[in-house]
Description:
Elements: H1 3-18, E1 20-24, H2 30-40, E2 45-46, E3 61-62, E4 65-66, E5 73-77, H3 80-91, H4 103-108, E6 111-114, E7 124-127, H5 130-146, E8 151-155, H6 156-161, H7 163-174, H8 219-226, H9 228-236, H10 240-245, H11 251-258, H12 261-269
Parallel strand pairs: 1-2, 1-5, 5-8
Antiparallel strand pairs: 3-4, 6-7
Helix pairs in contact: 8-12
Amino acid sequence: MDTSIRSGSQERACNAVVGVRIMGTPRSGTNLAKYLVERYLKTPVVFDRGFWKHGIFPALMNGRDMQYGDLPIVVASKDPVTQLLSWYRQARNDTLFKPSGCLASFLSKPFEVRQDFTEPGRMEYRFRSPSDYWNQFYFAMDALRRAGAPVHFVCYEQLVSCPALSLHMISHFLGHSLPFDVGSAVEIPRHALGASNDVDQTANSAFDQPVYKSSRADLASALARVGWRNANLILRGIDNDVLCATGREDFRKTCREAAGAKAMLRSLVGLW
């Protein structure tokens, strides 16, 4: 057997045992991905070691070598319409994001992200808009992948609708000798792990754990809540290359097909 092949296999197996870093914007599915990877792939997950899991990847350079923490990285993403709706709901709690009066204002004004709302003196970041943060975060992760770092993107909606297939692809990326069986039963936790995008309900606190609903991954449901006018505002700020990097090449077309009468009516009569 070729020793170089054997050495490569042993190295991948070693990496699979050491762990994996999971990154993503807030409420993009990082907690759910962590839960599934640790439970079903038996692989330790690292969040905030060296740099913040929700922060745009820093340019940590040592000479010309990229420093990414020596762990493979799984990047969780939620489609931008559903994602920004989720951020708007969280902003009303004045935690990671500063609040805004209405959705239209939230989507168009500068967007501030707090690294840790529980302690004073932590870093804050400002972007031109929420769409700009989504763009910058995932562009940086794709740039890291293009630079040769081990980066794998997983879509939240696929993680929810096809968890076994998503775990199969992650296990293959991690170099597991036996990739996860796509026919295996995978249980999504009854309660969402800190994620909700339902703006029609008011959370009692930032730590509410609402019962999981499949509609959180449903684009049509999100469009009905934000309205087609606001959806267009979101899409105008999203870069096509970044959509492709996250696995959403036809997302604009998908939005047009998913927008129904409720989305149009929301734009006409909603106080947005």
